[in-house]
Write a structure and sequence with these properties.
This protein is mainly β. The chain has a single domain, classed as Rieske Iron-sulfur Protein (3-layer Sandwich). Helices cover 0% and strands 39% of the residues. It is built from no helices and nine strands. A three-stranded antiparallel beta sheet has the order 1-9-8, with no helix packed on it. A hairpin with a 2-residue loop joins β8 and β9. It binds FE2/S2 (inorganic) cluster. FE2/S2 (inorganic) cluster binds next to loops.
């Protein structure tokens, strides 16, 4: 259907400040919805690929978010770690802004990372 957003309604665009990260659960899977320094919004797996640390608790700088666990930064567009110790990407999900609201579809992984295993 043209014009209809797919995925879960997360929040209003206005609810998310620049450089803010929001942790949400979609089908019990943790997702970080992040607004970068330029105001663009991204959705990625919230769990660091290095260990069980929530990326949404980290700082956003430019188009990256830093894991507070051991300092790896992840590119918000590609999900790729920008330095060690993390070396595997986190999944990046399809995100749509419709009528000022943010929708995330975790069934669509846009960066080739493994799709989440949903219970
Ligand atoms: S837990 Fe994220 S870099 Fe180690």
């Amino acid at each position: 259907m043209a014009g209809e957003p797919s995925g879960e309604l997360i929040c209003s665009v206005d609810d998310l400040q620049v450089k803010q990260a929001l942790r949400v659960l979609i089908e019990d899977y943790p997702v970080a919805v992040v607004r970068d320094s330029d105001g663009e919004i991204h959705a990625l797996g919230d769990t660091c690929s290095h260990a069980e640390v929530s990326l949404s608790d980290g700082d956003v700088e430019g188009c990256a978010i830093e894991c507070w666990g051991h300092g790896s930064q992840f590119d918000l567009r590609s999900g790729a770690p920008l330095q060690l110790p993390a070396y595997e990407p986190v999944p990046v999900f399809a995100l749509e802004v419709h009528d000022g609201n943010v929708y995330v579809d975790i069934s669509t992984v846009t960066n080739g990372a493994p799709a989440p295993q949903l219970g």
